[in-house]
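#lab-general

N.A. 3:47 PM
ok so I finally got the sequence cleaned up, no stray characters, all 209 residues accounted for. can someone with queue access submit it? mine expired

B.Y. 3:52 PM
send it over

N.A. 3:53 PM
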Amino acid sequence: KLSQQEIRNCLYYGELNKRLLKLAEYPAFRQIWGIPDLPVPEGEEPPSQLANDQYFKDMGDAQLVLRFFALRHWERFRGAMQDFLDRYMIRSKKFNAEDYQKLDKLFKETIDTCKEVFGDLVFRPYEPDNDEWGAKPQASFADSVMVAISDQLMNKEKLLGKKRELINGTQRLFQENPAKTFTGAANTRNDVQNRIKLYCDMVNSIVQD
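B.Y. 4:20 PM
back already:
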C-alpha cells in the first residue's frame, strides 16, 4: 500500500516533486529527524540503514518538506491536510525557476535557523505532566515552529540573541494550552490555524520585545 506522498510522487511528478526529494537530503534536516545521512548512488538501491528508516522508506521525509511549503499559507487552510497538500502540488505547476530557487533558499535557511535557535530541542514538544521535553521531533509541532521562524528570517540576529526566551516561550505555550494543541492528530481548519497562529504570535512578541 502506497503512502499519500508516494501517490503524489506518481500523480504530480514534476519539478516540485524533484525539489522535495532533494531538499529531504539536506544534512541539517536529516540530522534533526534522525534520518541516516547516506548517499544513494544513481541507479543503485539505497543502503539498508537508509532504506529501513521510517521517514525515508515511504517518502515521509519529502512530505515533511511539502508540509512546510504548503502551511506557510496556513490562513488559506481548508479541508483535510492531505487534500491541502495535494492542492499545493497542483498549484506548483505554475511555479517558475525563480520561485523554486526562493523555496530552496527559504527551506534551508529556516531549517538552519531552527537548529541554531533550539539546538537539541528543535521540534521536540514539551510535556508539562512530566516536566520534560519529548524524546523525538513531532511533525505537527514542527509545522508551527518552521512557519513562525520562516516569517522572522529577516530578524535572524534577534532570534539567535533570544534563544532562551524562545525556548521558555515554547514551554509556556505547552503549559497554558490544552494537551495536544500542538501535537494532536486532529487537522481541522481550526486545529491547524490555531496552533500555527499561537506559535507565530509567541515568536513575534519575543522578537518585537
